[in-house]
Amino acid sequence: MELWYTEEHTKNVRFSIKVDQHLYSMQSEFQRIDIMESYEFGRFLTLDGSMMLTEKDEFIYHEMMVHIPMATHPRIQKVLVIGGGDGGAVRELCRYPHITEIDLVEIDEMVVEACKQYLQKTACALDDSRVHIYYEDGLKFIRRMKNHYDLIIVDSTDPFGPGEGLFTREFYGNCYKALTEQGILVNQHASPYYSTYAQSLQKAHERIKGCFPITKLYSAQIPTYPAGNWVFGFASKLFDPIKDLDTGAWEDLGIETQYYNTDIHKGCFALPNYIKQLLVK
Q: Which of 134, 187, 195, 222 is at a distance of 20 to 30 A from 78, taking alpha carbons?
């Protein structure tokens, strides 16, 4: 008997992966959590039936979330990660010795525990002494913070269910207040290709533009995400991710990556016309 995981990207498009074993399945207070072992992509995590990561291609997403801002602002010390209970973003941040504080705010403790048990490849740095995990709503957490973080990474699910509140104007405004005067916000903007996702991208970009003086989008190719093309948002009070990139300083750190490099950094902000047209009202 063959076992397949199938995700509906639209009413007319489905994505399937052949599964070897279903390792974990639990319903938390917030969502259904599943971890499966596949033949092609290794272990993978789904929340409410939507793909969050696979062991084979997660490095693309996490490297692009973390190294873009870190190469732009080399003096980042205090970082907040909202969502990201799988630990992939935290793992990449922990590769920087000058970071002194990493706060991870994850609403669902069961996600973290499941990933620690079954996805050690991403969860391997969650016990680093610089990491502090808060199991609470990111919306409520960010309201309490002011002028504290150099970088905020919003590693959320898509703007549906538990992650919906992390795409509001109020949330982005509170992120602005929680950042220092040189602070940077990075968040995932989903796929620009299918209409439902594209509309969410448009709304998020407009709301962030209303809060930050510098806003840009960049993209990466992630095979297991809808349409294989994923967009991220970069917003800053001071730093431009292209003009302020210090190639030499980042390369001197000697961080070995599988996807990110400083040439990718420069090129990923060059957007195809169909994405540019989404941003024009």
A: 222
Tokens representing residue 128 in the block? 């680093």
pTM of the model: 0.95
Based on its alpha-carbon atoms, the radius of gyration of the chain, rounded to whole angstroms, reads: 18
What is the spatial distance between Cα 86 and Cα 68, in angstroms, rounded to a whole number?
20
The amino acid at 183 = G
Hey, which residues are catalytic here? 155
Neighbouring residues of 270: CB distance < 8 A, sequence distance ≥ 6: none
**Distance, CA of 229 to CA of 64 (rounded, Å):** 13
Distance CA 271, CA 158 (A): 21
Q: Do 116 and 123 form a contact (C-beta atoms < 8 A)? A: yes
